[in-house]
């Protein structure tokens, strides 16, 4: 199975250690989504825009660990979407993003350049 990540799980980010045993497949520009800066982590939601992502091949134990990580916040839901590497799971934000800055570049790593 595959997972697509857009924030702190990406390479060289704060939670990238969760992806240590995952196989990096490549980058992807995910169209039809927007990304917002919630402070320490991002929120991706469906919308007009493009989000810069990374796609990984993972096993069921990595998915279970990521589900646990994301369920601790109760802020995300996991959905299956299509990528050039095949279908992949993505964690989408469940709440309103009113008041949070949108990352216009679509790239979590470039968010500080936009401030």
From TrEMBL:
Residues 3-109 form the Gamma-glutamylcyclotransferase AIG2-like domain. InterPro entries: AIG2-like_dom, GGCT-like, GGCT-like_sf. This is Gamma-glutamylcyclotransferase. It comes from Serratia aquatilis. The lineage of its organism: Bacteria, Pseudomonadati, Pseudomonadota, Gammaproteobacteria, Enterobacterales.
